[in-house]
Structures are given as structure tokens and as C-alpha cells.
Batch of 2 targets.
Target 1
Amino acid sequence: MAKVTEHLAASKGKPIFSIEIIPPAKGGKIDELLDAIEPMMELKPPFIDVTYHREEYLLKEQADGSVKEIKTRKRPGTVGLCSAIMHKFHIDPVPHILCGGFTKDETEDLLIDLNYLGIENVMALRGDIAKPYTYFKPMKEGHKYASELVLQIREMNQGKYLHEESEYLSKSDFCIGGAAYPEKHYEADDQNIDFKFLKEKVDAGLDYLVTQMFFDNNRYFEFVKKCRSNGINIPIIPGLKVLATKKQLDVLPKLFYLDMPEEFRSEIDKAKDDKTARQIGVEWCVQQCKELISFGVPALHFYTMSKSTTTMAVARKVF
Ligand code: FAD
């Protein structure tokens, strides 16, 4: 097994095909998910990201008028799925780990589990806002920002545990990825503030970045230029999503706070049905990939939602 940065170095300038998958909904069958992603193994992704889904809270009014919070998680199983990927496909999994919903001690336990499993990579994230809240609420003994989580992992890599520190404690050796937003993170007041915090996160010890999806390559190019001129020199992997339905033209910008290029929007608007929209989406992404490869990207990372059809339609034309 190897680190993401080692895979990138070994590719000798040829961009890597990598994917992100999501665990099945609770009660779903792991075999169905592994079957669904199997067609993508044809392109031998050296690593596969597995998202982490934080808990949600159902607010139930009680007979006495008080409100009870019921904690539920729609897609548990990130660690088990990572282990299954290692065993079935012999591919490095990259579990996402979150600030949200975790105390620092629980994070430490999770990292120990991953270390025992032989997992060498993690993606350190703050995590989405837990429903039904409208703002991010860290745990009382948890981290508020991804940069704090990165520091905890770095410390463990040096043999410093939360309550123990001794030269006899084993050191983990995680390669750490983090998220970046070429079109700004939605909570940040402006791009410069967001960039300042991104730089802090990188300096805390990130090894590489993966971007939020974008449909306008210029956003990525400008972002990389800004990173390089401000001393962020780690690999910046572009995240890509193939538009698969007409509805996604409006849903994706709302969910991920991104702009759709006018030319793309008008092409999709004219599409008579989802099948036509999908063909346009595939062609748009193929052109994006070709331009990104000419730019010299280290990898093309696809947000697959654990489905292979559209990703493979693009990847077969590109790799
Ligand atoms: P941070 O880097 O902590 O930034 C969050 C916000 O806080 C930003 O606006 C930033 O500017 C600001 N900020 C940072 N530091 C400070 C500071 N010191 N003081 C004040 N403000 C600060 N979500 C999931 O729940 N599960 C997943 O598996 C998942 N995978 C993802 C993978 C990728 C590649 C990406 C791009 C996103 C993913 N997300 C996932 C979504 C992510 O959790 C959300 O976008 C979240 O809102 C921000 O996470 P972050 O790690 O970028 O946060």
C-alpha cells in the first residue's frame, strides 16, 4: 500500500485517474456497491476516496413540550468500506475524516483503527453542517476547523497522542489531504479571507489538496496560480463531476456554491431530455479533462456518487 503523494510521484507526470465514492445508505448491501464501482477498476485507480457522512438530528417534540434530539446517520460504514476496498481491489482507500460529530479522543481512536488496518491516507475535513442546523456546530471537545484536525494527525505522526507522549509510542505515518475551493468556500466573506485560512491549513501539514468540483477550468487555473504565488506548492488535484441530468444544472450550484459557465448552461437548457443532457455533460467534461491534462494536473479526481456510467464514458475518452 502507498501514500497518495507516492502514487502521484510514481506517475511521472502522467495524470492519475482517481475516484470518490460514498458508502451505501444504511441497510444497503456492500456487494451491490462494490459491483457498481467495479467497472471503474478497468482504469486502475491507485486510490479511492470514501466519504464520511456525519450524523443528523431529528428533533422530536415530547409530550411535555420539550424537544428531544435523536441522532441518526444515513450512510455509516466508511472504515469498513475502506477495508473492503483494500481486500477486494488491492487499492489504497482514502477515508474522509471529519471534525463534525467527533471529539478529539474519538478522532484519535479512529486514527488508531485506520493505522491498524494499514491505511496510509486520510482526507481531513471540517464536514458539512449537520441537519437540521444552519451553521456548523463542533463537539464540545472537538475541532472547529480542518486545520486543527490536520495538526492532531501530524502530532500522531510524530508519536504525540492526546494524553500520552513518549519515545516508545508508535508513530503513525498518514499522508494528509485537504479540501480547496477554487470558487470560494460558501461561508467565507471573500476569497482573500478563505485563501488566508487555506494557507493556514496547508501550513498545518497538508500533503495535497483536492478541489471542489468546477465546470469552468479558468477557475481552477486562476486558483492554482494564486496558490503557487503564495507559497502553496503541494499537489492540487482537480475534482470533477459529470453532469448527468438536466436538473443538476440548478441543483449542483445550490449544493456546492459554484457557477455554471453560460455556454454550458445554454447547451443543457436546450437539451430535450436527460439522455441528451448527459451526452452534453460527458462531452463538456471530456474537454475539461483534455485542457486540464495540457495544463499538467497531477490527477483527475471524479465525484462518482458510487456510479460508474458517466465517469467511465468520460475516462475512456481521456485515459
Ligand atoms: P475548513 O478548511 O475548516 O474551512 C471551513 C470554513 O471555515 C471556510 O469558510 C474557511 O475559510 C473558514 N475557516 C477556516 N479556518 C478558519 C479559522 N481559523 N478562523 C475562521 N474561519 C476559518 N463533507 C462531509 O461531510 N463528508 C465528506 O466526506 C466530505 N468530503 C469532501 C471532499 C472534498 C474534496 C471537498 C472539497 C469537500 C468535502 N466535504 C465533505 C465538504 C466539506 O466538509 C464542507 O465543504 C465543509 O463546509 C468545509 O470543510 P473544509 O474541510 O474545507 O473546512
Target 2
Amino acid sequence: MKQTREFAQQLIDFCYASPTAFHAVATTRELLDKSKFVQLHENTSWKLKAGGRYYLIRNDSALIAFIAGTAPIAEQGFRIAGAHTDSPGFRIKPAPEMLAENTYLKLNTEVYGGPILTTWFDRPLAIAGRVALKSKDPMQPHIRLLNIKRPVCIIPNIAIHMNSDANNGFTPNKQTDTLPLLGMITQKLEEKNYLSKLVASELRVKENEILDFDLFLYEYEKGSLIGSSEEFISSARLDDLSSIHAGISAMCSISKPKSTCVMACFDHEEVGSSTMQGADSQLLSEVLERIVLGLKGGRDEYFRALASSFIVSADGAHAVHPNMGAKADPTSRPLINNGLVIKLSANRSYTTDSSTAATFMQLCEKVGVKTQRFVNRSDMRGGSTIGPISSTHVSIRSIDIGLPMLAMHSIRELCGIEDHSAMLKVLRELYQN
Ligand code: ZN
């Protein structure tokens, strides 16, 4: 129980240190460096050795870590877990400063992915992301991560007296109703470039060195354990940093596995995965092939390895809601702290089938973890995940699973401490089979 709570607390720390996909990769990298993983680069040739621990970063926002197996790769194949680094929220637009009433300074933003908008109101918000600076070589801009870890802005609600629809299906307008307030100013707006000045002073660079940025809002407050026995984890970005945290922790805890173990952390799942660092790219297939080549295998060994491999795509799953149980399927009703969720869909928005479910259930059984099933109500469409997308690029048996959670895509999501430890145990078992 103590270990379970400690691991849950580590997840809360991990989420807090990872306000954006860029920071999730940086935080993950720190864990890998501590466990003696070596960074590889795409523009150098790879000479790998059995038992070696490696990782690769693409676009600062996606990462693939792996341990080369000790058995011949063509026979033993890959054991892969996949998850995503990004979370829905608000991205700051270029030239973001806007004035209201000649004195309220607001930031122009656009919505990233599908957040529950109303959960972002009245929360102290901070700003984080990536900033591109001038460099000697234009092909390689100088990149800095930025985390303004202070409550610098807020999206205030309108009083209920001025919005009689506040509790009656209020739909905020994404351009006009959700802009965060950054401060009050007295000068004319044209005279000041507030955000650039703030970024420059945080990074201790000159304002004219800043060429562009990928900056996002995030909830300033840290997550916490919650519940009468602290059985829940309440935090931002549990979807899907919980899977990244469990997968990387599993990988760091093993040494010299027979199979080649891979943890794939993709970006851009929340916006469809179709980018160079998303699951709908050649990232995974290229890395897997380069692993085989780096171990002095050829294409024949690569395809043989794929045929003996297995992917667990781990992403948040919907638990039955305590107040809105009717929204869940009538017979498959996953509960928090009752085991990992196997996701199924007749229209294949999840990759699971009976064969891959059987493999996964047996891995769970070996480490004493229970499984539950999720299917959508037949009159609801539901979401998808990285599994079906990545399996169109690599021919590997695959399953979609996840932690049962509530409030998915809220600024604060809720999952269970037992399930997070269960994910660690099962992914470790996957890697050792
Ligand atoms: Zn997700």
C-alpha cells in the first residue's frame, strides 16, 4: 500500500513537471539518464549491442526508449508499449496581446484538442512550452524550454446574474469567451510587447533573439491524492502521462530482457496524430527497423521480428461515472481501482481482438492484476487512440488498454492509485516475456 501511494505521488510530481509535451519528454529523459540510457540521434549511424539501453527524441516532443534484447531479435521480436505526451488545452496565438476596456490585457489563444472548456475558468493558470531563438545556423534554431511556473493568468467566469444559462448548457465561444486575463495596463498596447518581454526575462535573453514560440496555458496548481483513504489521484494530464510514467518506470526497472523492449511516447494524439512525431507517422517503424539494422540484422530479420512482436497501446479509459452511470455500456462497467481496462470496438477504433486480449489477460494474471472491459454504448461514438493508427504503419499484434478514469479532458482528471501501480506491474511483465 505504501509503495502504491508512493508511486501515485511520483506520478503527481511527473505530471506537475510536465506541463507540455516538450516538458514531458524532458522529464522522461531525466528518468532515462538516471537509469543509464544513452541518447541516439537520427542523423548518426547506430551501433547497438544486446542489453544496451537507448533513447531517441524527435521534435523535442516525442521519445522512443528501448533496451536491446539478449535473444536473437528475429526470433524474439519487440515488446512495445505506446502512449502519448500531449494533452488538450490552450495554445497561445502569435501576436497574442489584446486589450479590453483600454486596460485589461488579454492573451489571444486557440484551443488544442478537445478540453472540457468550462473546467478552465477561474483557475490560476501558468504558461509553458518551447521558444525558438536566433542561431548562427538557420537550419538549427536555438531551442529553449520555458516554464513560467507562476499563476500569471486566469480565465474569469461571467457572473451568473449576467448569464442565466450558466447552469443550463452554457457553450463558451472559443474565440471570445475563453481568453485569459494577463494583467492591467496603462500604456497604449502598441508600445509594449508584454508576452515577449515576459519570455525574454524568464529565459534571460534579448527580446529580439526570440523568433517564435509554441506556448500553452496550464493549471498552476499541483495535483494531489484525494479521497477518504487517499485512493484517488487528482491531477492535470493523467491522460496520458500516467501511461508514459508507468511505461518508462517499467523500462527503467528491468535489465537485460530477452525481447527488445520499447516505450513509444508519441506527440499530437489529441489532434489526430498526423505529424512527423505523431503515431500516424513512420517514427515507430523507422526506429524498429534501425534497431534491427543497428544489431547487424537485415530487412528479413526486421520482418521476422515484427511477426513475433506485441504492442500494448496504453491510454486513458472511461470509468463508470458515480453520478451518471447511464452514460456507460449496460454490461461492461469499468470501475476505478478495479483493474486495467481492455478497450473493444466493433468498428475498430480500438485494435483489441480476442487473440490479443487473451495475451494481455494472461500477462495480467501472472502479476495478479485484474482486467475490466470497456465498450461504448451503441448509441455513442466514443474516442479513439494511438493503437489503430500506429498498427497501420507496423504489422504487429496490438491491444488497446488503459487506466479507468473520470473527467477525461477536464483540466483535472481523476484515476485510482491501485490502477497506476497495476499498469507498472503489467508493462514490466510485458517487457520480460
Ligand atoms: Zn489519451
